[in-house]
Predict the structure.
Amino acid sequence: MRRSTRIVLSLFLLISIKTNSQDTSFTCSNNSYKFLDKVIGHWNVITKDRISPNVYENNKGVSIISNAIEGCSIKESYRGVYKGKQYAREVTITGMDSLNVQMVTLDSEHSGFSIQNGSIINNVMTTIWYRNENVKRLQSKYILSLKGSNAFEFSSYLSTDYGKTWALTHERTYAKINH
């Protein structure tokens, strides 16, 4: 692993650990955080995961989504199964202003992280990642859409043709766990 990657990963993990002890009564006033606030809670997750082109498996997991960075972000900690193995994913989404968001993902399958930028329009958050910003041939897109107060979808897609066509990689349906 390159030194710069290790440094960024270390900072990400430090922020993740630190945010668990922060005051959750502080909130941001921007509209993007007001949208993100709606997914805070404990969730059962049913997934449709792509294991190879046009081949999918159904899995289950549990997600805890909490307030992070003094209320300006949310952090998801997901645990489940993927390709017959234990799988974990950490996602931090920050409301940058009234419409724009930035998302950082780290997962146990790829042992790496990615940073996506996007926006929230009509109660749907969409973020995009490009392998090469100048070329934009390989892209990932994440879409989070609310389905009422007790459910939402958070799915990902892959394009290998400059965003002309998209293939579903993970479809995640969240149902709130009542405590």
Q: What stands out?
A: Confidence is low (pLDDT under 50) at residues 12-24.
